Each structure stands twice: as C-alpha cells, then as structure tokens.
Amino acid sequence: MSTDLTEHTLDSRQVYDGVLLKVHKDTVRLPDGGEAVREYIRHPGAVVIIALLPDGRMVFERQFRYGPRRVFLEFPAGKIDAGEPIEQTAIRELREETGHEAGYWEHLGTMHPCIGYSDERIEIFLARDLRHVGASLDEGEFLEVTALSLDAAMAAVWRGELTDAKTLAALIWAQRVINQGF
C-alpha cells in the first residue's frame, strides 16, 4: 500500500446551498485505487477570541445554540464574512458581541473543529488592553457577557459545564498566555 494518504476528487456536486452552510457530495479515488463517496460541509470559517481583562479574567459569553438546544458558555466568536480579513472579523465580533475594543491583538493559531465532515477552520486570537465601548449585537442575537478567571474556566470544564470545542481548544492557548506570559 502507498504511503500517500491523499484522496483525489473525481467528481464533486453541491447538494445543498444554505444561508451559512453548503453541503457537497464528492466521489474520490482512495490511496489504494478504490473509490468512495465523501459528504462534507463547506463553511466560511470563524474566529474565536481570548479577551483578557486588566484583572486577568477572560471575557466569556452565555448563548443559546439551536443545534444542541441549550445555552453554552463560550469565548466570543463569529463567522468570517466573504472577503473579510480574519483580523477584522475578530475586531468586529469582539466589539459587536461584548462591547469591548482591544489595544493589542495577536493571531495565535488555527483549529479545525470538525475534520470528519467539514472544512471549517477557526482562527484563534488574543485581545488585550480592553476598553468597554458598548455592544451592538446582530439582529436575532441574544447573549450574556461574563468574565472568568482561568481557574474558574478550567473548573467549569472539569464539571462538564464548558463543553464548546472552540473554547476548549482556545483555553489551551489561554493557559499558555496566562501562565507563561506568551
């Protein structure tokens, strides 16, 4: 068997075109020469923001998510608009959702939350030197802004109260930033 694990697209069809998501159904050539069908979601990508307050706490949101039908504790985040630079998305989302602007921004990394069925990527940002200027939520968006220390956030993880994947991944970066002064 080949050491090349790449699957090559033989045919690709979009089978659903939604407001946010597009679903594709592809036929691929497998590394061993066989064929398979792959169904996956195309997603425009998103950002997640670790926003550090002067006292060291991090800005969080509580927001109802329709798919799992419950309120989640999560870092501020949002979808990348077509043609929008990722840094601008982060600045926009932090301001709209939490009412904060940051004097310092840093792109920390990228995560892929659903590699088995989606091309979605989430860009992780650090925001410091925050000042509150007032939120301006999108129409139909409802959330509660709160702040937690790293210890309180990790305790919420271990109690099973914080289960959002992007926030869990970003907390790894937050630990490094807070504990090592990254």
TrEMBL record:
Reaction it catalyzes: GDP-alpha-D-mannose + H2O = alpha-D-mannose 1-phosphate + GMP + 2 H(+)
Organism the protein comes from: Methyloversatilis universalis (strain ATCC BAA-1314 / DSM 25237 / JCM 13912 / CCUG 52030 / FAM5)
Cofactor(s) of this protein: Mg(2+)
Biological process per Gene Ontology, one example term: ribose phosphate metabolic process
Molecular function per GO: pyrophosphatase activity
InterPro entries: Nudix_hydrolase, NUDIX_hydrolase-like_dom_sf, NUDIX_hydrolase_CS, NUDIX_hydrolase_dom
Keywords, alphabetical: Hydrolase
Positions of the Nudix hydrolase domain: 41-170
GO cellular component labels: cytosol
Name of the protein described by the UniProt record: GDP-mannose pyrophosphatase
Assigned protein family: Belongs to the Nudix hydrolase family. NudK subfamily.
Stored Pfam families: NUDIX (PF00293)
